[in-house]
Design a protein that fits this description.
Length: 116
């Protein structure tokens, strides 16, 4: 049996921008993506702490150590600059493997989205 489990989480980062006219996705500082083991193009779930919105898009890398978290395209309508969000990914795996799997969870500084 295969089940879907938490793979990665960037817990509580501040939205730095919302670009409605971009094609789509979420731009995430590549340092945060690497720390959370999220790759370019990976499907991500976004939870907006400020307004309760939940939606899906895909990740694209932003400049390293910039703290950038920008929602692009239609997703830009679901956030405002300075909202706090959680970025989540999931993975399908065998039920027995899932019992011992440890997800990558990071807790950046939510003031500037840094890892320190």
């Amino acid at each position: 049996m295969q089940i879907e489990v938490l793979k990665s989480k960037i817990h509580r980062v501040k939205v730095t921008g919302a670009d409605l006219n971009y094609i789509g996705s979420i731009t995430i500082d590549i340092a945060l993506m690497e720390a959370a083991n999220i790759i370019e193009g990976e499907k991500v779930s976004i939870v907006n702490i400020n307004n309760g919105e939940r939606f899906e898009t895909y990740a694209i890398p932003g400049p390293r150590n910039s703290g950038e978290i920008t929602l692009n395209g239609p997703a830009a309508r679901r956030v405002q600059k300075d909202d706090i969000i959680i970025v989540i990914t999931y993975a399908l795996m065998d039920f027995e493997e899932a019992k011992t799997f440890s997800p990558w969870i990071i807790f950046p500084n939510e003031e500037n989205n840094s890892l320190t």
